[in-house]
Amino acid sequence: MKARFDILLLKPARDFLIKLDEKSRKKVFYILKKSSIQNDPRFFKKLNANIWEFRIRTLRGQIRMLAFFDSRSGALVVCTNGFLKKVSKVPSVELLRAENMRKQYYLENESI
C-alpha cells in the first residue's frame, strides 16, 4: 500500500524515542507507519486546528507523539515531541510545546 503521508521527526521527538525501551520504540514506529498508510482515529487523531496526536498503547502506559501537517506539502506530517501520558487529557504544556515547535519549524523553513 502507498503511504498517504511521510513522517519527519524533529529532534525533540527523536530524543524522546531514544529514551524509550526497544520494544516500545518499535511499537511507536509500527503505529507511525500504519497511520501513514491507513486512516484509523484510534492511532492518529486531531487535537485542535493545527496539532494531531499519534496514540500508542504499550504495557508501560500510553505514549503520545504530537505532530502537525506541513501545510505547504499535504503529504508530510512533522512529529514535534513525545511523552508518556499519565492523565486523561493531553497536558496543555505539551500542546503549547508542539505549537511553539510548529511555529519555529515554519520560521526555519520559510524558503522551502
Helices and strands, with pairings:
Blueprint: E1 6-9, H1 11-19, H2 22-37, E2 44-46, E3 52-58, E4 61-69, E5 76-85, H3 92-108
Parallel strand pairs: 1-5
Antiparallel strand pairs: 2-3, 3-4, 4-5
In short:
The chain is 38% helix and 29% strand. It contains 3 helices and 5 strands.
CATH topology: YaeB-like fold
Low-confidence stretches: none
User: Helix and strand succession?
Assistant: EHHEEEEH
Q: Quick one: overall form? A: globular
Helical segment count: 3
Largest sheet, in brief, is: 5 strands, mixed
Which range best describes the helical content: under 10%, 10-25%, 25-40%, 40-55%, 55-70% or over 70%? 25-40%
Proportion in β-strands? 25-35%
Helical/strand content category:
alpha+beta
How many DSSP E strands?
A: 5
Give the N-terminus to C-terminus distance in angstroms: 28 Å
Give the averaged pLDDT, no decimals.
Answer: 92
What count of structural domains? 1
Looking at the overall shape, the CATH architecture is 2-Layer Sandwich
Query: Looking at this structure, what is the CATH superfamily?
Result: RelE-like
How are the strands ordered across the major sheet?
1-5-4-3-2
